[in-house]
UniProtKB/TrEMBL annotation:
Its EC number is 2.7.7.-. It holds the Pfam family Fic_N. InterPro entries: Fic/DOC_N, Fido, Fido-like_dom_sf, Fido_containing, SoFic-like. This is Adenosine monophosphate-protein transferase SoFic. It is an enzyme of class 2 (transferase). It comes from Methanoculleus chikugoensis. It comes from the Archaea. One of its GO terms (molecular function) is nucleotidyltransferase activity. Keywords: Nucleotidyltransferase, Transferase. PANTHER family: FIDO DOMAIN-CONTAINING PROTEIN (PTHR13504:SF38), FIDO DOMAIN-CONTAINING PROTEIN DDB_G0283145 (PTHR13504). Residues 114-263 form the Fido domain.
Length: 369
């Protein structure tokens, strides 16, 4: 039987079993509050959690099929002129765009509310100069799209709403976004699922949908910084993630999706908190160690540069840390001699050396902490 286009029901959905969800709602909100407490204790979360943002971009893009790793992205940014294959470059460009879109949103939310116009702006950044740039960046689609194993709509697993139904569906979605609900995490779970099911763009819907999670949490005041990383859980549980979304469109099973998403928030709040704490502990340790090792007035500037970019070229380090070149070269040598940084590629001729900060990378990429 041919799948029919999804017809979104008005939000909030009818039939949410609030009583059944109460334990999950309580657990997820407690876990999120603990995570936010950790965020509030970090003196400069945008600096210290910068590698986690890049890792979120890596994992969210991986759900869509990219193969690039965190190390691939950071090595490319350290030495963008190094030869690299076209496919790898396209993967890395998508990941960098994802991070750039999130950063754009963070700046925008200082002065405006989250709305559909901002979502379109983020989509434009996401697809800029990448594989999706020919797929109407920033524009709601005017064609019928579908998800399937081949190019035949007759074989589709899922068909989003018809183009003529998008305006009403997105208007209802935006009204629900800006309205209230009994619990914000349930509201968020509905908004995320409905956005991905509406599939309003020709490309990038899943990535924008995952990006909305920290932005809505921040916009609704549940976290003090828009830094919440959901993609590790969704990537690890990808088959269930897709099945629960499909069950909403196929069976109207909102309760199954809400239960899944609340558990995802709880699990990932704990994992994010452990990583953020480990990064803060490492920073506090290095705040003692790096000045002792370098005996330099530039020790703190050097330390901040290491935490912002845990794989870097010597040239990038000079620029990031804003340290005179001779002093910066001496600091790098001392950090290398004491095993704080490791050489990934020696410099030669006009090519700068590439270094890594292994302990920060291990925390960032660690699946379990």
């Amino acid at each position: 039987m041919t799948v029919q286009p999804y017809v979104p029901e008005p939000l909030p959905p009818a039939g949410i079993d609030w009583e059944a969800h109460i334990p999950r709602i309580a657990s997820a909100n407690r876990a999120l509050a603990r995570y936010d407490g950790i965020l509030q204790a970090i003196p400069n979360p945008r600096l210290l959690l910068s590698p986690l943002l890049t890792q979120e971009a890596v994992l969210s893009s991986r759900i869509e099929g990219t193969q690039a790793s965190l190390e691939d992205v950071l090595r490319f940014e350290a030495n963008p002129k190094e030869p690299i294959g076209d496919a790898a470059l396209a993967d890395i460009r998508e990941i960098i765009n994802y991070r750039e879109a999130l950063n754009t949103a963070v700046e925008a939310l200082k002065t405006r509310r989250l709305d559909l116009a901002l979502v379109c702006d983020l989509h434009r950044v996401l697809l800029s100069g990448s594989r999706g740039m020919d797929r109407e960046p920033g524009c709601v689609r005017t064609i019928q799209n579908f998800i399937g194993r081949d190019a035949q709509i007759e074989h589709a697993i899922y068909i989003p709403p018809a183009p003529e139904d998008l305006s009403g569906a997105l208007g209802d979605w935006e009204a629900y976004l800006q309205g209230g609900e009994l619990d914000v995490l349930v509201q968020l779970s509905v908004l995320k699922a409905q956005f991905e099911l509406i599939h309003p763009f020709c490309d990038g819907n899943g990535r924008i949908g995952r990006m909305l999670v920290p932005l809505i949490l921040y916009d609704k005041g549940l976290i003090g910084s828009p830094m919440f990383y959901i993609s590790a859980y969704l990537e690890r549980n990808r088959p269930v993630y897709y099945e629960r979304l499909l069950a909403v469109s196929r069976d109207g099973d909102w309760n199954g999706w809400i239960a899944f998403f609340l558990h995802a928030i709880e699990e990932q709040a704990g994992a994010n908190g452990r990583k953020a704490t480990a990064i803060l502990d490492l920073y506090d340790e290095m705040k003692q160690t790096v000045p002792e090792v370098t005996r330099s007035q530039y020790a703190v500037a050097a330390l901040d540069a290491l935490f912002k970019t845990p794989i870097f070229s010597s040239a990038e380090f000079f620029e990031q840390a804003a340290i005179p070149r001779r002093a910066a070269e001496r600091i790098l040598q001392q950090l290398r001699e004491h095993g704080i940084i490791a050489v990934l590629a020696e410099g030669g001729g006009r090519r700068a050396a590439t270094y890594a900060f292994p302990r920060l990378l291990a925390i960032t990429e660690g699946d379990r902490l």
